Please model this.
Amino acid sequence: MFDTITPAPPDAILGLTEAFKNDPNPRKINLGVGVYKDADGTTPVLGTVKEAEKRLLRGEQTKSYLPIEGSPEYGAASQRLIFGDSHEIVNSGRAVTAQAPGGTGALRVAGDFIREITPGATVWVSDPTWPNHPSVFQSAGLKVATYPYFDAATNGVDFEGMLATIRTIPAGDVLLLHGCCHNPTGVDLSPEQWQTVAEIATERGILPLLDFAYQGFAAGLEEDAMGVRAIAAHCPEMFVASSFSKNFGLYNERVGALTVVARTPDAAAAALSHVKRCIRANYSNPPAHGGEIVRTILGDPELRQQWEGEVTAMRERINTMRHLFVETLNEKGVTQDFSFITHQRGMFSFSGLTPAHVKALRERHSVYIVGSGRLSVAGMTEGNMDYLCAAIADVLKG
Ligand code: LMR
Model:
């Protein structure tokens, strides 16, 4: 049976890490996957995570299964982080949260659930979007379509184009929005634009699904929830897929959450019963360790405060790298204007580099970036900046 199989193409992002590992060039740089690097080029375990793990190791009594939907305290903490401590959604019980293996796990559970309740629904994703979005929803048996998002001429949002398409989306379809730090473009909606999208989605009966993987990486933990909360203020029903890979640095623990907001607590409870069936048929129940770390940090005022400082430090370092990158490109004699990169938000920069540039960077300089021209600014350091910018200057010459 397997003799007839032809190899599948490597993953657009994680495939780069595989190729990078096999590259013998000692100066190689991986700006493919969105993973935070500190000044030394390492991906640190946060101090708060180490402390939480110490406490967990001391206090752990059992390795027995979690409930299908995970720890209730974790779910409550996730909701408070998304909506704010005293939000009506948090207090009313019309939201339910299932712990999930990463943001991707949360998206897939959402996909399975949507397929179960509205099998004909299409999921509308931005053009461009994270390359795994279409795969996740297609694997769940859903159709995927796109709405315009990025305007290459202005390096901003093509808001008119986006609205024109959203106005054609039928009731019951799903609109996937990036909560903040749009991946791959780093270009987010303004508060007024969020408001407009929320109003149209409500009017048309479109179900918003917020992919919220970078909370804290744009302007701050509270500030970055503005878009999600604008949707929540208008739309009676929504999904939020949270990831704690980046803001807790818990990449390999696979820790995320799917929150379903319904009109009433009864409807939310019914939704959870279906979400649980989807989880049970998929991975049965979630892994505990990463979620316990997050719950411990968010539940302890001192650790929570320390963690907020850690998120701020990561965000500020990435922003420093944005400026250093643009300055160093100038120093290397690049005349093309890259200043827009200092205004983009989150881990990524949509550089405008073409597929030919991307190929030349990899083949001539062992610099790995995503085919769309997306660079992970979070992987830049003072130490690799000079080599990186010289490499970009070289490929821009042709
Ligand atoms: C990315 O876009 O690089 C991250 O979200 C990691 C991933 O899983 O692709």
In short: Residues 13, 33-34, 130, 132, 183 surround (2S)-2-hydroxybutanedioic acid (CB under 6 Å). The chain has a mean pLDDT of 97. The chain has 14 helices and 13 strands.
